[in-house]
Write a structure and sequence with these properties.
The chain has 120 residues and is mainly β. It has strands at residues 2-7, 10-13, 18-26, 28-39, 46-52, 57-59, 67-72, 77-82, 91-101, 106-110, 114-119.
Length: 120
Amino acid sequence: QVQLVESGGGLVQVGGSLRLSCAASGSIFSLNAMGWYRQTPGKQRELVAMIISGGRTNYADSVKGRFTLSRDNAQNKVDLQMNNLKAEDTAVYYCNADITTLTRRAMQYWGKGTLVTVSS
C-alpha cells in the first residue's frame, strides 16, 4: 500500500507565492516519477510539473519560469514552489506518483487534492 500526503495550498493574491508538498510512503521499491496535476471544474486534469528518475523535469508551458518542482529522494517527497501566481492558476492540485512497489508492480497513485485559489 502506498499513500501520497499533500500539504500546502490555500488562498493567495495575484502575484503571490505558495508552496505545495507531497510525500509518498508505504511499500515503495522505487519512485519512478512524481509531480503535480491540476483540474478546474469542467476541464480535464492537466499536467503542471513532473520530475522523473534521472532528474529531468517537465513543466506545462503556462507555468514555465514561475513554478519550480524539486525532489527530495531520501524522503520520497516533492515540493512545488509557485511564484507570480495568476488567477488562472486557481485549481485543485493533485499529487501524482509512478511507483514500483515492493512486489515489483509499477502503479500510478494520486493524492486527494489541495485547492489553490488565486484572487485578484
